[in-house]
Amino acid sequence: MKANIKINSNDLNELNRKLSFLRGFDKKILSTELGRTALSIERLAKREVPAPTGTLRKSIATVIKDKTVSVVVDKNYAPYVEFGTGTKVDLTDMLKLGIPSSYAAQFKGAGIRKVNLPARPFLFSSARIEFNNLLERLQKKIKKFR
Fold first, then answer.
1. Is there a domain that residue 33 lies in?
2. If DSSP codes are grouped into helix, strand and coil, which group holds residue 74?
3. Residue 4 resides in a domain
4. SS3 of 89, please?
5. First and final CA of the chain: distance in angstroms?
6. 111: domain range?
């Protein structure tokens, strides 16, 4: 059995244009959008962090190295502010980001002291908001080339 398939040259050109866009998408647009998102997470986290002295706020920074972008908080007590302590631990934002609860376990104390400080999320909640914004921006950019 023989099948002859004819493809409209305009359709083929349109397909090639879209494929070309998608090949370059991760190189230019995605890189720019990830950097923009990290800076937005930093900005929002600095606005949301409970900072009576400002030390924790000043320790929040975006770090770009090679092809990696990170938002870091350079204070050892930051997880206790973010997640709370004792019976007041709240991992909601972290879990909604798909990060397993075992991540927060590294900050669990030995249980020697009974300190129950409420969670005051600032980093993971900011990341969740800005990742949603990133997804919306990327979807809009992709839709332009359908």
1. yes
2. coil
3. no
4. coil
5. 34
6. 9-143
Amino acid found at 107: F
pLDDT at 18 over 80: no
Residue 75 lies in a domain: yes
pLDDT of residue 102: 86
How many independent structural domains does the chain possess? 1
CB 134 within 8 A of CB 37: yes
**Which pLDDT score is estimated for 37?**
94
Q: DSSP label at 144?
A: T
Quote the CA–CA distance of 34 and 38 in Å, as a whole number. 6
Query: Where does the pLDDT of residue 132 fall: very low under 50, low under 70, confident under 90, or very high at 90 and above?
Result: very high
Query: Dihedral (C-alpha) 42, 43, 44, 50: value to the nearest 10 degrees?
Result: 80
Determine, yes or no, domain membership for 58: yes
Full DSSP string of 15-53: HHHHHHHHHHHTTTHHHHHHHHHHHHHHHHHHHHS--SS
Between 113 and 101, name the one with better pLDDT.
101
103 CB burial (10 A radius; 0-12, 13-18, 19+): middle
